[in-house]
Amino acid sequence: MIATTAAFGSFIAEVQAATFTLPIEAAAKATGVDVLRDRYGLDGTGITIGVISDSFKTAETFDISGNPDTYATNIANGYLPSGVNVLKDYSSPDATDEGRALSQLIHAVAPGANLAFYTGTGGAVAQGQGIQALATAGANIIVDDAGYFPQNTPDVPLDFLDLEPPNGPINQAINAVFNQGVSYFTAAGNDFPELPIYGHSNNSNALTVGAVYYGNAESYLNRAGVVVQQGQLEPFSSEGNSDFLKPDVVAPDGLPISFNLGGDSRRVANPGFFDFFGTSASAPYTAAVAALLLQADPNATPTEIYDALRNTAVSSLPGFDSRLGFGLIQGDKAIAALGVKPKSIPEPSAVPALLGIGVLIVGVSLKRTQQKSQVIVKLGDRLPLVVQHTNA
């Protein structure tokens, strides 16, 4: 934690920097989350985020020491809050508790938010029911990383097809909750450019999120043998199409979680933790940023939240791009676009002179490239955004 102390004669104003339940400092700085937490004092209090994924607390998972990692241990370690409202879970042998991983990332960004969960397994009708159930349970924001087969996939039952909008129960449920004032976030998919974004991720009433690497390591070697730099678009982040303007934005992945998700998680970017790669990480991160925005402006509509995130995102390219969308989200710029002003730091009214400003470092806990040319966009005092288009 960093405490900045400003001394004005006998008057002292102290601003405490936010601490995070997981080491997401690189991602937070790149996306303005540090500003939302530090300067605006936001933590998601009063907002409920619904999560749709495979399971929440039924899989057998382990931490980096090989000890059982459960919802109970996550509460004890501060990675999750108590009282997560699990409306429906999934308990088959293939469960991975990916919903718990999404929830850990949300809690790291918005630790004051309430969380709810509904499994996305069981077919499109079941997922649509889950969306509506979460909204009924009070979710202001819903995020999923679940989907089914593209609609033209042969020999697949209708209920296991993710139909293009406005068709199908998933799209119908998204449209229904959107009209009730619920913001909906979904993962763009990790299908590489060969399989473009499809199904409910093309829904205009949802915000679709691609992935940019922002683990705490400056780069990592992916499984294809390619070095991916901090701030670089992940090669697997799915291609969109200009007809739907998808993905809308990109956000960090390569983020830390406490357990070995699916038994095959990597440990290359965040010492002491497992790494969560993919748009399944970037979507909940963005949903959590939206929770901070909604806390600051409770009257903001889903469209206003989406527009604030899209219109203030940073990109190396003008306008929309089928891999980057409108660019990397910037929470501090998005909140300004909503017209919210930061909390003012008290200033003395009758002090003759500024005597000095000191910075006291109390302690910082940091549980801490392919084809075509790279384009670097400077983000002020933040890390550069490196965009690299690739066919791999």
Automatic annotation (TrEMBL):
Any GO BP annotation: proteolysis
Domain of life: Bacteria
Gene3D superfamilies cross-referenced by the UniProt entry: Peptidase S8/S53 domain
Keywords: Hydrolase, Protease, Serine protease
GO terms assigned for molecular function: serine-type endopeptidase activity
Domain annotation Peptidase S8/S53: ranges: 104-327
CDD domains: Peptidases_S53_like
Record-stated family: Belongs to the peptidase S8 family.
Protein's UniProt name: S8 family serine peptidase
